[in-house]
Design a protein that fits this description.
Elements lengths: L1 E7 L10 E2 L2 H10 L4 E5 L8 H11 L5 E3 L1 H7 L8 H21 L2 E4 L10 H25 L3 E4 L12 H11 L4 E6 H7 L3 H7 L4 E5 L15 H10 L5 E4 L7 H17 L2
Parallel strand pairs: 1-2, 1-3, 1-9, 3-4, 4-5, 5-6, 6-7, 7-8, 8-9
Bound molecules: L-Erythrulose and manganese (II) ion.
The site of manganese (II) ion (MN) has 5 residues, from loops.
């Protein structure tokens, strides 16, 4: 298993992004501390210089496992489940342009908050569910064409009202049935929604593509009370070979968090 930090040019105080600032600094920090990659969160793909970031990744020998896309949903209110077709089209267009960037950086693209909510009107829920799945299918076609993997994320009930558990996301993934679509398991959301974290991960065998690893309090692993060893053992048992990305709060500060997180996880991974 490979380990990544998360980075963004800027993010709100409450956002679970480990490093905020220039990509040069993010890649230098990740390389210095022995990470394998940098997960980049972006509102627009053109917010970064793609050639410069590609060079940084090559120079430091780091991968970019996925591009986080939730900022566009949060800041612009665009989503696959929106009842307005023009807004759905903007969400699809944004993901397709993230896919183009991902293809250049050999990265994946996360489909999390941009999948969207169903809302409280029972008459609209089925329509919105179908609309969101159709948008996802359209993005999958573009991803297949570009050779990019999309990671569909299960997100807890306080942020989303569909695809809340891994099983629900797996059901959607199987309905869409694209070779370019994999599951993203985030231990912060799982700690709220799942009955048994290792059991849920084992059911995702063969479908899991990416992991957001944080402790119970959304700090780096080792700063809370999640049984991180049990999570890593389950991932080992399903032969997960992707990235564990620390989508965490930068506490007590970004450098200490990055240092503590990788030390803790490498130590647990070295145990039988
Ligand atoms: C996105 O990956 C996620 O986990 C959300 O909770 C971010 O707010
Ligand atoms: Mn996440």
């Amino acid at each position: 298993m490979k380990i990544a930090i998360t980075a963004a040019l800027d993010a709100g105080r409450e956002a679970p992004i480990l490093f905020r600032g220039e990509m040069e600094e993010a890649f230098a920090l990740a390389a210095e501390l022995g990470y394998d990659g940098v997960e980049i969160h972006l509102q627009h793909p053109q917010d970064i210089d793609r050639i410069g970031v590609g060079e940084l990744a090559r120079r430091h020998g780091l991968g970019v496992p996925t591009l986080g896309t939730g900022m566009a949903a949060g800041r612009e209110g665009i989503a696959f489940s929106d009842s307005d077709p023009a807004i759905r089209a903007r969400a699809v267009q944004r993901i397709c342009s993230q896919i183009d960037l991902a293809s250049f950086l050999h990265s994946g693209v996360t489909i999390g908050l941009i999948y969207g909510r169903l809302g409280s009107d029972p008459a609209m829920r089925e329509e919105k569910r179908e609309a969101a799945a159709d948008c996802l299918k359209e993005c999958c076609r573009h991803a297949e064409h570009r050779g990019v993997t999309l990671f569909l994320e299960a997100i807890n009930r306080y942020e989303m009202d569909q695809l809340v558990t891994l099983d629900e996301a797996i059901e959607c993934l199987q309905k869409v049935g694209s070779g370019s679509l994999k599951l993203l398991a985030d231990t912060f959301h799982m700690n709220i929604e799942e009955v048994d974290l290792p059991g849920s991960l084992r059911r995702a065998a063969g479908l899991l593509g990416h992991v957001h690893l944080s402790d119970s309090n959304r700090q780096v692993p080792g700063h809370g009370h999640l049984d991180v060893k049990a999570v890593l053992d389950a991932l080992r048992s399903i032969r997960f070979e992707g990235y564990l990305a620390f989508e965490v709060l930068p506490l007590p500060d970004p450098v200490s968090a990055a240092r503590d997180g990788i030390a803790h996880v490498r130590h647990l991974l070295s145990m039988p």
